[in-house]
Amino acid sequence: MLSKKAQYAFRALSHLVDKFDQGPVLISEISKKKKIPLKFLENILLEMRKAGFLESKKGKGGGYYLAKNPSKIPVAAIIRVVDGPIAMLPCVSLYFYERCKNCDEKHCGLHDIMAGVRDATLHILENKNLQDLVRNSSKNNIFGK
Amino acid sequence: MLSKKAQYAFRALSHLVDKFDQGPVLISEISKKKKIPLKFLENILLEMRKAGFLESKKGKGGGYYLAKNPSKIPVAAIIRVVDGPIAMLPCVSLYFYERCKNCDEKHCGLHDIMAGVRDATLHILENKNLQDLVRNSSKNNIFGK
DNA sequence: AGACTAACCTACCAAATACGTAGACTTTAC
DNA sequence: GTAAAGTCTACGTATTTGGTAGGTTAGTCT
Predict the structure, then answer these.
(1) Does residue B140 lie in a domain region?
(2) A30 located within any domain
C-alpha cells in the first residue's frame, strides 16, 4: 500500500501539473485546494524538490513548480522518493536491493514470482507519468467545459 | 513490501509443501529448518489455519499440514490473510476496498493507474500457487539428486 | 487414569514507522 | 527594512511490526 504521504504527494503533484508553466504555486494554496495538512505538505514538497522533481522560489511571488515537463516524470520515480521500494521483496528490488539470507535466489520460487510481479508493475509505473495523473479529468476532455 | 510475517509464512508453507501427504509437521521442526522464531511462527500458522489453508492435529504425532493440494492455493490468498491488501490504494482494492475521499474515482488518474497495477499483479499472484514456491528447487528438478 | 505432547490462547512488550506539529531561520521582492 | 515565502531542526503521539511469556486445552499412549 502507498503511504498517506505518497498519496498526498500525488494529489499535490496533480495540482502542480494543472498549473504547469503558470509560475510558482504557494504551498498554502496546494494545502487548501487539495486538503493536505500544511506542515506535512511542506516536508513532502521539500523532499521532492531535493530529489529534483520540483523547483522552488522564496519570498513574495514564490512557491513550488515542476522542474520539468510532467510527461517526463514517471510515477515510479515519485513512489521511490516518497515511499521507497516498489517491489514486494528486498531481494527483487532494483533500487533498494538486499540479499536474502535463508534463500538462494537461484532456487527460490517466491523470488521468481515476485520478480515477475515487479516487472509487471514497473512496466506500468515507469511508463505512466505525472501528465497521466490528470488525464480523463473534465479539463482535459474535449467534451468537457 | 511484504512484511517479515508474510515472508516467514511463505518459508513455512514451502516446507509444508515439501512434506505434503506425509502427515503432520511439528511447529518446532519448521521453526528449526526454516529458522523462524518459534512463538512468532505459532501465531502465523494459527492464522493460516483459521483462514482454512492449514489443518492441525494436537497431541503426540500432531502438527500442521496443508488443508488441500498446494497447487490449489494461490499465492494471492496467502498474502491477503497475512498482510492484508495487495493493491497500492484502498480505492482499487478488491478485498479491502475503501472509498476515496477527495478523489472522484471516475476521474482520478492515479486510481486508473493503480487499478492497472492491481490487475497486472493479481494476474500473476492469483495464478501462482504454493506448488510454485518449490518449483526449480533441486528436489523437483529432473537433473537434481 | 495419568503422564505426556503439542497446538491454542491471552497478554504483554520494545522498536520502528507513520503521520503530523512547532517554531525559529533564511532568502527574496518591493 | 519589512513582509512573504520556503527551509531547517526538533519534537510528539499513535499505530504497526516483530516479537516473547506463560498458562490452557485437547489429543495420545501406556
Answers:
(1) no
(2) yes
Sort out which chain B residues have CB atoms less than 8 A from A14's CB and list them.
109-110
**Alpha-carbon distances, residue A39 vs A36, A44, A45, B2, B130 (angstroms):** 9, 9, 10, 30, 46
d(CA B139, CA B145): 7
Asked if the structure places residue A140 within a domain, the reply is no
pLDDT digits (tens, 9 = 90+) for A87-138: 999 999 999 999 887 777 677 899 999 999 999 999 999 999 999 999 765 5
CA distance to partner chain B, nearest, from residue A22 (Å): 21
| B141 vs A57, more confident | A57
Per-residue pLDDT tens for B69-122? Answer: 999 999 999 999 999 999 999 999 999 999 887 776 677 899 999 999 999 999
pLDDT higher than 70, residue A141: no
Q: Which of B10, B103, B121 sits opposite A117 (nearest CB)?
A: B121
Which residue range forms the structural domain that includes residue B50? 4-70
C-alpha cell at A55: 523547483
Q: Is residue A143 part of a domain?
A: no
Tell me, what amino acid is at A19? K
Q: Establish, for the pair of chains A and B, how many residue pairs have beta carbons separated by less than 8 Å.
A: 92
CB atoms within 10 A of CB A60: 5
Q: Which of B10, B88, B138 sits opposite A2 (nearest CB)?
A: B88
Distance CA(A107)–CA(A104), nearest Å, equals 6
Cα separation, B22 vs A47, whole angstroms: 54
Q: Looking at the structure, do residues B12 and B50 belong to the same domain, yes or no? A: yes
